[in-house]
Write a structure and sequence with these properties.
The chain is α/β, with parallel strands linked by helices and 752 residues long. It has four domains: 120 residues, no CATH class; 255 residues, no CATH class; 241 residues, 3-Layer(aba) Sandwich (Rossmann fold), CATH 3.40.50.410; 35 residues, no CATH class. Helix content is 40%, strand content 12%. Helix 19 links the parallel strand 13 and strand 14. The radius of gyration is 36 Å and the shape is elongated.
Length: 752
């Protein structure tokens, strides 16, 4: 990759103006201008954080109000965030063993094998979160040599060293011993004395210099190696180092013009801030420090593979710290004479502030002639604003935040154990939480792509009890019997459409070319040259059925029984017939729309089906084609040049969706009406047309029952929704069902 990709040649790599990759797309969420919109759906931001018309909390331990509730919208967002960040980290580190976890309040730093991130689900903070995670994961890859050097001297990142360890480390690094006098009350020979006094202060400051150089080095490495990650780093820099409050502190705060250790360290840490290059003359020899760091060449401390040349980096850190110590010490030695001069009426002889009499060079070697106001205007323009603002910054708060980052102990929002378990479950089940817009209205949905035992608490309202004492209609025990009946239907289907997995072989003899037919060799003597044969073997293309089931409450009773039997039969057949697979989708309309992939014969065993199918029951409303649109992208992905895809739906013909509130109240804004000319019917027609345009064959089963007068009021709505693809077949007639499926698969379906 080119180092100059998407870069402006007149700006340093850390400058915000460098990032021109793509363009940010603003969401409706306040203060959100996120690069993360490339991998997170903006519509879901808008819905879950702006409006939230429905309570998205569910009870995960039961149905009573006393049980804990979890916001599945937030859990889904956090699951998506961790998946995305994990992918970023995996790509950057090329190490699948490095894990990404949310902070529990006790583990805010990376240990080389785990990257701890904040449990942040607000879209406007995603960029910063990703940037921080990438920064920490880069340490895992590129900073190991530095960690080993510190370990060699028994210097732990988070404690564990003695005073003797610290002193020996400082001396080994080449720090000036005369500038670091140990207080007389400390015994340097007693290695058991804990960190104390000036020795500890020097170590803490020196470590900050080392950390600063290494942080900028690894950021530059990633910045040049992975241009696609630049926006996330820029977001981090804008918040921590290049912020307006930092600039105001560097320019306005008088205390930062005094050559104290605090002033030097603050200006050093914020070397990337645009205000720094205009205020190099504020401290003695700070321009020398600036040039020693040389941010544009910070990768000189890197080997070709990006790992750190620890010895060279630590040596440069020592040179920088010695320069700081020298100037801080000299000021202290001259303080008495300065005070006497002031007493005699002389002006203070402290560090010149950059006036006309200053002989301290700036970055360009000239004498600064700009006033603070002029500097502020220039810096504000570089930071993308007209002004820096009038309010003075909280310096202590800024320093505390930056120090936490240097120490690798940034404050991170922790995640409760309960919510953490739900997030892990949603990741494991690949559950998505989002919204879909239909006819100008937003419908919230959950898409569960994989069923595991841990996902059961999330599906509480969808599942029946497994207790054997309940034998009433529709319970688990009864539904297990329906599944057994469905297996018998499955064998009938296998027998009826056996042609699907039988090779059709045709032999043609007496051909001029091919393989010799031994039975015709005798005829060669009578000038017969056509003694060859050819075989034509015909195989059917691979076929995939996408079966989606209406699980609304109106499907209960006989309808649900027949649906379960037919579904089981098709699932059984798919596992027995070559080149034939089925995906079973369950669709629910509750407080949100649920689209659940219950079974995929390509990856799931039949035992998976027989375990889960009896657990589901009919409940809620009928989202119908809303789910079709949610699943359209997945269905489209099933179609290839070498296969056939079939769309089969089972419904009782009442398409609608009305969200149900916590007390059973309906939200009229989500109505999806079921009359013959409703938006629901029109939307269904639209989706059927879309599937046909994909060259997907459609078969729609009407699962209804007639009243005592032989009427079925819903069949007309069904036919209006699905047209010729709609089949009103008694689902207890196995022969008719088998024939309809067979006709569909061999391409002789009159309805398709």
């Amino acid at each position: 990759m080119s180092d100059k990709l998407h870069s402006k040649p007149d700006l340093p790599w850390w400058h915000a103006g460098n990032v021109t990759i793509g363009s940010k797309r603003k969401t409706k969420v306040k203060e959100s201008n996120s690069w993360s919109s490339y991998w997170m759906d903006d519509d879901s931001y808008d819905y879950f954080y702006d409006r939230t018309p429905v309570n998205t909390k569910i009870r995960i331990d039961g149905q009573t109000k006393s049980n804990a509730q979890v916001d599945i919208a937030r859990a889904g967002r956090l699951a998506a965030v961790r998946r995305a960040v994990s992918n970023f980290v995996r790509i950057l580190t090329n190490d699948d063993e490095i894990t990404v976890s949310f902070s529990s309040g006790q583990d805010s730093y990376t240990d080389g094998k785990e990257v701890v991130i904040s449990a942040e689900d607000k879209p406007e903070k995603f960029d910063m979160l990703v940037g921080t995670a990438l920064h920490e994961s880069a340490h895992c890859v590129f900073s190991q040599a530095l960690f080993e050097l510190m370990k060699k001297h028994n210097i732990g990142t988070h404690g564990g060293s003695t005073l003797g360890d610290v002193e020996r480390f400082l001396k080994a690094c080449g720090l000036d011993e005369e500038l670091m006098k140990t207080p007389p009350h400390v015994d340097p020979d007693n290695v058991d004395v804990p960190w104390t006094g000036e020795a500890w202060e020097h170590f803490s400051n020196f470590k900050n210099v080392i950390n600063f150089l290494e942080d900028r080095r690894i950021d530059s490495e990633v910045f040049h190696r992975a241009p696609g990650y630049r926006p996330y780093y820029q977001s981090m820099y804008e918040k921590l180092w290049n912020a307006k409050d930092i600039a105001k502190t560097l320019i306005r705060v008088d205390g930062m013009n005094e050559p104290t250790m605090n002033s030097y360290m603050f200006r050093l840490i914020n070397l990337t801030n645009p205000a720094t290059k205009y205020t190099l003359d504020r401290l003695p020899e700070f321009d020398k420090i600036y040039n020693t760091v040389d941010l544009n060449k910070i990768r000189r401390f890197s080997h070709k593979d990006g790992t750190v040349n620890a010895k060279a980096l630590v040596q440069t850190a020592a040179d920088i710290y010695n320069t700081i110590l020298k100037n801080v010490t000299e000021l202290q030695e001259d303080s008495d004479s300065d005070q006497s001069e002031e007493a005699d009426g002389m002006s203070g002889a402290g560090l010149p502030s950059g006036g006309e009499d200053s002989n301290l060079p700036n970055l360009d070697g000239g004498v600064p002639q700009l006033s603070d106001e002029e500097i502020e205007n220039i810096v504000a323009k570089e930071l993308g604003g007209r002004t820096l603002g009038k309010a003075d910054p909280n310096v202590e708060k800024l320093q505390e935040k930056q120090q936490e980052f240097l120490d690798g102990n940034t404050k991170k929002r922790k995640l409760s154990k309960k919510l953490s378990d739900v997030v892990s479950t949603m990741e494991e089940s690949k559950t998505e939480v989002s919204t879909i817009k239909v006819d100008g209205r937003d419908y919230p949905y959950l898409r569960v792509q994989k069923l595991t035992d841990n996902v059961r608490p999330l599906l509480k309202s969808h599942l029946v009890t497994e207790s054997p004492k309940y034998e009433s209609w529709g319970t688990h025990a009864k539904q297990q019997e329906w599944v057994k009946t469905g297996r018998r239907l499955g064998q009938i289907i296998v027998d009826r459409i056996k042609v699907r997995h039988d090779r059709n072989e045709t032999k043609f003899t007496r051909r001029p070319l091919g393989k010799i037919d031994r039975r015709l060799i005798y005829s060669l003597g009578v000038d017969n040259e056509n003694v060859f044969f050819n075989k034509i073997i015909q195989d059917y293309q691979d076929s995939v059925i996408y079966l989606t089931i209406d699980c609304s409450s109106s499907m209960s009773g006989d309808k649900w029984k027949n649906t379960m039997i037919l579904t089981t039969g098709l699932a059984y057949a798919a596992k027995k017939i070559n080149n034939f697979d089925i995906i079973v989708n369950l669709r629910y309309g509750l407080d949100s729309i649920w689209s659940i992939t219950m079974f995929d014969s390509r990856i799931d065993a039949l035992t998976h089906f027989t375990k889960w199918m009896p657990l589901f029951h009919a409940a809620g409303y009928t989202p119908e084609s809303i789910v079709y649109e949610i699943e359209e992208k997945f269905i489209r992905s099933l179609k290839t040049h070498d296969n056939n895809v079939y769309f089969i739906t089972m419904t009782d013909g009442q398409p609608n969706y009305t969200a149900m509130g916590s007390r059973g109240n309906s939200f009229s804004g989500w109505n999806y009406y079921d009359d013959s000319d409703s938006p629901a019917v029109k939307h269904c027609k639209k989706m059927m047309k879309s599937f046909k345009e994909m060259n997907i064959k459609i078969l729609s089963y009407f699962i209804g029952h007639k009243d005592r007068y032989g009427r079925n009021m819903d069949v007309e709505v069904f036919k209006n929704s699905y047209g010729r693809s709609g089949v009103d077949v008694p689902l207890d007639n196995f022969s008719m069902i088998s024939r309809s499926v067979n006709d569909l698969l061999i391409g002789d379906c009159e309805f398709c």
